[in-house]
């Protein structure tokens, strides 16, 4: 029986950035060093047309600052040993459904409020939501993926201003600022999962094709629209 990988389209916490690397000590912050009780960001509508939500800074956030940390709402293996891919998908759907049933009522409500970009039936909508939002973990947990409901609200940019990092020792996902983020500015991660390394190293066409194939949207981030404007100017 083969171990079928069912988790190839979700964002990794090893994604590349188009900014210079930020020196973030691996050991910070320690478990007993808690974040400020008042969040430095808020979740609100980012796109008035689509009604999509996003994370926005409430105050100036300096480069290298830890913004947020959270534990997984649902966690599942990335793949399952099965005789065929179809059997593996069935096992994956069933595993996610069982993990969903373990959640308290408010956890179920929160999970079901997340987006679903996968065509699914009502019977396996939890599978679609998981596949649409899960992050591939790393380190000793690299065989698993998980959904983090706050991080799920973070939109994509090919020029991200935050980085997410899974900490196996804390069993938490941490978010850091990779540049200074101004009050009111939206916080963006990258969905590329390291597919093209540094975002600036791939063409706008290649980035957009990847994002459309795996996430179903035509990227209009600043890096892509700047490229469009440059092409228009040269025509």
TrEMBL record:
Span of domain SET: 39-192
InterPro entries for the chain: SET_dom (IPR001214), SET_dom_sf (IPR046341), SET_domain_protein (IPR053185)
Domain of life: Eukaryota
Region (Disordered): 1-33
PANTHER family: SET DOMAIN-CONTAINING PROTEIN 5
The name this protein goes by in its record: SET domain-containing protein
């Amino acid at each position: 029986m083969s171990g079928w990988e069912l988790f190839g389209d979700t964002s990794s916490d090893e994604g590349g950035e188009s900014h210079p690397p930020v020196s973030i000590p691996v050991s910070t912050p320690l478990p007993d060093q808690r974040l400020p009780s008042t969040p430095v960001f808020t979740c609100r509508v980012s796109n008035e047309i689509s009604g999509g939500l996003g994370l926005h800074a409430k105050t100036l956030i300096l480069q290298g600052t830890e913004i947020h940390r959270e534990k997984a709402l649902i966690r599942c293996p990335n793949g399952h040993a099965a005789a065929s891919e179809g059997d593996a998908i069935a096992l994956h759907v069933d595993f996610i459904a069982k993990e969903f049933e373990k959640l308290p009522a408010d956890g179920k409500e929160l999970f079901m409020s997340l987006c679903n970009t996968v065509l699914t039936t009502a019977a396996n909508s939890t599978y679609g939501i998981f596949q649409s939002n899960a992050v591939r973990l790393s380190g000793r947990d690299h065989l698993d993926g998980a959904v983090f409901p706050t991080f799920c609200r973070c939109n994509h940019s090919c020029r991200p201003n935050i980085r997410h990092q899974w900490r196996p020792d804390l069993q938490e996902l941490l978010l850091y600022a990779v540049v200074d983020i101004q009050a009111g500015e939206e916080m963006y991660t990258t969905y590329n999962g390291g597919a093209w390394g540094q975002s600036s190293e791939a063409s706008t066409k290649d980035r957009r094709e990847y994002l459309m194939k795996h996430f179903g949207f035509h990227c209009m981030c600043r890096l892509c629209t700047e490229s469009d404007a440059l092409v228009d100017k040269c025509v």
